[in-house]
Amino acid sequence: MTSLPYPALHASHTGIWIARGDEVRQVSRGEAIRAAADTPMIVMNAPLIGQRLGYADLSGLDLLELFAFLRPARFMVPTPKGLATVTGLDLPADDAAVAPFLHAAAERLLAIPAGEWAEREGGWTAAQSLFRLRWSWAPLLVERIRKPAQNERWLFSKLPEWDEAAPRPAPRTVTIDQAATQATLATLVGQGAETRPGQRAYAAAAADAFAPRTTRESPNLVLAEAGTGIGKTLGYLAPASLWAGAAGGAVWVSTYTKALQRQLGHETRRVYPDDAVRRVKVVTRKGRENYLCLLNLEDALQGGFAGRAAVLAHLVARWAAFSIDGDMVGGDLPGWLTTLFRRNGSTALTDRRGECVYAGCPHYRKCFIERAARASAEADIVIANHALVMVNAARGREQSTRPTRYVFDEGHHLFDAADSMFATVLSGQETIELRRWIVGPEGGSRGRRRGLAARLSDVASYDEAGGLAIADAVRAAQGLAADGWLQRVAEGQPFGPIESLLASVRGLTYARAEGAEDAGYGLETELAEPSPELIEAAAPAAQALDALYRPLVVLGKRLEAVLSDAPDWLDAAARARVEGAIASLGWRAETVAAWLSLIARVGGPASPDFVDWLAVDRIEGREFDIGLHRHWLDPTRPFAEIVLKPAHGALVTSATLTAGGDWETAEARVGATHLLRPAARFQAESPFDYAARAEVLVVTDVKRGDVPALSNAYARLIEAAGGGTLGLFTAIRRLRGVHARIADRLARAGLPLLAQHVDPIDTGTLVDIFRDDRHASLLGTDALRDGVDVPGHSLRLVVMEGVPWPKPTVLHAARRLAGGGSAYDDRIVRARMAQAFGRLIRSADDRGVFVLLSAATPSRLLDAFPPGVPIARVTLDEAIARVASRLSSRAALGHETAPAS
Question: Residues of 405-423 as b/e, b for ≥16 C-beta within 10 angstroms?
Fold first, then answer.
């Protein structure tokens, strides 16, 4: 019998239960809502339970919040199974047993402060603050956490400071011996490990990227395709670590997904087994917007946040005191924590607007971002991502520590990353962000946001020309979109030249775009033959942007002059702040210059290098942005110019580098064709026996677009496989339709169904839950096609709803025309299918089935799959029989009780 005075509530796709003391009752949805409205309930994941009840305002005592307070910076899968693991309790036998289990788990968690509590420091103070905020768990915690004998240290005094260090010398010119590479690889693989000739050959090829460069702007570029199972991570870490140690330089290993970043961090334990050494030698870097901003957190803790957002701020502060690196996105902050608060306030805790005051911040010496940047300057291996590598190179950041050697893992994504990085968007959302950065708070807005004048007040008072430039920039920024712009534009009452331009863009887009009557999707149309209204609006918009561009450039030059002839007050901290302001001004001036170039296209000649279009962005019938867009026709051109040419060597690697095409296609997709020196090519086939371990089934009797038929197919296939299914969709609407029809049915069979765009859970956590439960299945879209690394016992069936044809956008149409028409489409589809198939077999013991629910699948596309894989066109009944036969039913996968959903 529980001693807690609160009932516990659990809702799944099979029913709803409330536990009070020893009594457990299954209740109706209406009764559960009434009870939850009247009495605080113990729940786990309130947003998810509220969604299942149809009661979005559900609140109560969420066990996930309690865990986040008691065990900050620790991992837990947010399911009954995950909760059982961290509490040491037995897993509930079925859904009906979950509600009383929640009671027992709450008591087990609340008992933590009475024992050896590793995270005790700061707990008493945080609980008192949360009690004043009326956090539901606080009354139970304050009576269990004893008051410390001495006052606890405030978070901002507890965090360690980073130290200044002399600039690192340029890497020495060294040649990596192949024998040394092989010896290092053998050490990393470990004694007794199986001999893999493919891995040894791969390491030898990768080592060529670390050879000395012989010609300026001609890096040693190696393109290496290594099939799944080759062991490419250790294959390139061997020569990379060897070179870093011998040359005294850093190798930047860049990925596309956060999942691979985490995996790489784990793999480097083999290179540097000692934790203390590894913390120095290996650093993970992400963009500034990923890290907690201590100044924003302090503002939130001191009254900047209210209500639930204030509770989140205190839980984040608890986490920050124990976090390894302060990374809020993909680090040791649980991905599910911010979703518990409907993301209310979480984005305001990071520096998403580029408003950092650098050394002007009282927490500058303890800043997580600055610590990571300085640590990476001394590291041997820097684990980064494609976007950060490109941003740093394009904006001239950290020039003194610019890497000379790169490894681009997930290299098949370089084209997409460059496409996003080097694009130009002149939209309402973009211009209002720039206005806020320059002008600062307007009207009744709250928060610590400060405008350009406030951030550089000392410079303005010292340098008259700089002060005038600041004033001119603030004045010119008044012509940008302002709060309420979207409503004014929609009502035909724009204010100012930029809003008038956006109004003309909106009008022409609605007039010309296909599907304007369908409010569910965004609209776009080519920027060709512009209307007289758009041409008329472009001129004053260009004048307004030019009036802004000029003072930004002048101010940047004045700040550089202040640095070169430093006044007495310009100490090291102020110098760092001015240098930061110069960098911020530089890339914002470049942004405005790109906007001016885009506006010049209105009524002017088209450039063969770019694709320009107009768009109205909508989601579920609601407009959220309007603007003009420009993308490079070939975004690898600026990538090659800005990133590859200054480098001395780069390895671009992937399991699907040539998927969908040949080596010429692969070289074009990574920018190799823009270099003088040809790239070296290496290819190693996967050692897995795909022909024996997998098969591909094309189902011939499920009608395209028939959601009921599609739902039936997914349900029966998942049942045949006993879960363990990744279902991939090309449209969110169909995903939701299928989920709504089959989730309850599968839950009754003990097969939990998770879904992107349905469950109020972040994608990373959905994958964690999927990985943790071999009977669970996951429905998703493109983000899951090759960003999921799940072992075979949890992922044994991949089902695609149809051929993943590229969306017929303006940008795609232009690239299709330049890339060979239908052959270009075929290459994209082959690559997507190869990437999806790659989720299936992750080890030599895995077995699985890939099902394509599209009778119209052209046979020419089926060479996307590994050679020898059996491919058959079958009816749905035949497919189900084959899935059940190959995967040997649920019984062969384990006889344990299915975890509660």
Answer: bbbbbbbbbbbebbbebbb
